[in-house]
Amino acid sequence: MIPPMLRGIEFNVDMIFVTAKAWILSLLAQFLPAWLLVLASIVISGVVILCLGPVIMMYLTLLERKLLGRIQNRYGPNRVGKWGLLQPIADGIKMFTKEDIVPANADKIVHLLAPIVIVVPALMVFLVVPFGERMTAVNLNIGLLFFIAVSSITILPIFMGSWASRNKYSLLGGMRTAAQMISYEIPMTLAVVPAIMMSQSLSTNTIVLSQVGDYDLHWYIFTPWGIVGFIVFFLCATAECNRPPFDLPEAESELVAGFHTEYSGMKFALFYMAEYMNAFTLCAIAATLFLGGWQGPFLPSWLWFFGKTFLLICVMIWFRGTFPRFRVDHLMGFAWKFLLPLTLLNILLTALWQFTSNLAAWFWSILILGISLWTLVKLNRTFVPEKRHYPMGN
Amino acid sequence: MIVLPLSHILIFSLLLFAIGLYGALVRRNIIGILISIELMLNAANVNLIAFSKYTSLAPETGQIFAFFVIALAAAAAAVGLAIVLALYRIRKTVYTDEVNLLKW
Amino acid sequence: MPILEMAAKFGVYAVMGVILIFALGVVTLRNLFHCALCLAAALIGIASIYVVLQAEYLAGVQILLYVGAVVTLVIFAIMLTEHLAGKTVRQNNSQSPLAIMALLGFMALIGTVIVKTPWPVTPAALASKVSVMGLGKALMGAYVFPFEVISILLIAVLVGTVIIAKKDTPERS
Fold first, then answer.
1. Is B44 or C165 the better-scoring residue by pLDDT?
2. What is the pTM of this model?
3. CATH, range C1-84
4. What are C's interface residues with A at a Cβ cutoff of 8 A?
5. Whole-number Å distance between alpha carbons of C66 and B30
C-alpha cells in the first residue's frame, strides 16, 4: 500500500511517541539503577494516560457543545478564546471554585467516595486501548475481558452516590441507572464475542492486527455479523455512558438530575469527567474491534485511531441532538427482548461465516438476519397501557 | 512469578473462611448472612487456585472448578435474595430472630 | 532485580492484609450498605490475588461476575428492604462469644494441619501457564458435561428467581 520511498518517513512519524519514550528512558538510564528504570517506564505511561484522559474529556465537552449548537441552529460557546477553545478551562475554574454542598443527613464517607471511585475504572480502561501501532499501554492477553470487567465496576459508585445522598430523586435515578447499565452490559459483552471468535484472541492489539488486509476491506464492519455487532455495540455503548437517547437516569426534566442531584462543584465535575471518559473509551474500543483500529493508508496510525474515535463520538453527539428520550419500559424491553436475542443470533452467524466464507455466505447471512429482525420487531410490539378509570365518589 | 510459600496463601484463605463463617453464624440480617456466605465461597476459590498453581499437573482443572463455584455462588445469591424480597413483602422484616412464628 | 521482587512480595502481603480488614468490615459493620461495599472491595482484592497466582482470566471473570453482578444484586436487595433513615439496630445475635471461641479452635486446628503437611509443590506446576484457549478447550472437551448441567441450573435459577420475587398482581373484578 505504501510506496517504498515514503516508508521510512512514515514509519518515523508513526512511531514518534514510542521513540520519544525510549529516548527519555535512555536519558534516565545513565544515572538510575535498573529497577528504578522499570518503575520510571511505568510512571511515564501512567502520567501520559492521567494527562490524556482529562484533556480529552475537556475538549470533548467543547466539541459536544459546539456540535449540539450547530445541530440546533446556533453557535456553541465562542466567547472565551477563539472558537471557544478556552471554554473548558473556564468551566474547570468554575467547577473548582464552586461551593461543595453536602446534605446534612448524608452518609459523609460514601458521599465523598462515590465520585472518586467512579473515575478509577474510567481511567483504568485507557490501559488496554490501542492508540497506535505498538502504542497500547499494557498489552494484556486478556485485554478485552479486562475492559468489560473494569467498566462493569462503574455501577457500584452510582449506587453509592444515589444511596448516600438520602434523597428520593437520587435513589430513583440511581436505581434506574443501575438497572439500565446492567441490562445493556449483556448485549454489549455478547456483541464483541464475534470479533473475539474471528481473531481468536482477547488482546486488543491482536484483534486490530487480524483486520489487516488488502485495501482495508478486511475490517470486521464489512461483514454481515460485523455490521450487526457494531450497531449493537454502539447502541449499548451509548446506553452505558447514560447518553441520550438513553439518558433517563439523568433526565433533567424528570428526575432533577438523577443520581448526582446532591453533588456540586468538584464532585460533580468528577462524575461528568467519568461519563465523558467512558464515552471516549467505548468509542475507541468500537473503532478497535470493528473499524480496524489504527489501520489506514498514508497517515500515522495514531492519527487514524483518533480520527475514527472522534467520528464515532460525533455520531454520539448527533444522537443527542436528534432523538427524544426512551421511556423506561421501552429502554429495558429494547435491551432484553430485542438486542439480546439479536446478539445471540449474531454469534451463530459468525460461526456460519467462519465455515463458508464466500459469496453464498452473504446471501444466507442476510436471509437469516432479515427473518430474525422481522420476527423480533413483530414480537416487540409496544403496547398502550389500558386506560385507568378514576371513579368519582357519589 | 512471585513465589510465596503455599502455606501462606492457605493460611490467608483459612482466615477469610473463618471470618465469613463468623459472619454467617452471628449476623441477624439475612442479607448479612448471604454476603458472609459469598466470602466463604471466595476463600474456597482462592484455595482451589492456589493448589492448582502450586501442585497440579492439569492446571486448567482448578480454574474451571473455580468458574463453576462462581456461577453457583451467583445462582445461590440470586435465589436467596429473591426469597429475602418475598419474605420482606410479607413480614416487613429481614431479621432472622423476628421470623419466629413457628417457634414453640 | 531482587528489590522489585521484594517489593512485589511485600505488596502481595499488604493486599492480603487489606482483604482481611475489609472482610472484618463485612461481618462487623452496622450499616448494611457499608458491608456490601466492603464486600465489593474484598472481592476486587481477591481478583488481584488471582492475578498474582497467574489466573488472569479468572480475575477478569471474578470482577465481571462477582463485583459487577452479585454485589449489584445484593445492593438492590438492600435498597429494597432497608429504610433510608437507618436507625442503628444491634446486628449480632447472642451467639457471638461462643462463635468466636469455636472459630479460634477451628482456625488453630486447620492452621496446624496446613503448616505441618508436606504439600507436593512441583516445579513443573509452578512453571505452567494456562492460556484462555486451553481453558476453552478444556471446558468444551473434558468438562462439557458440568458445563451443560450448569446452564440448565442457571435457567432454573432465572425462572425461579423471577417467580419468587414477583409481586402477586391483584385480581381485577
1. B44
2. 0.90
3. 1.20.120.1200
4. 1, 3-4, 31, 33-34, 37, 40, 44, 56-57, 60-61, 63-64, 67-69, 71-72, 75-76, 79, 84-85, 131-133
5. 19
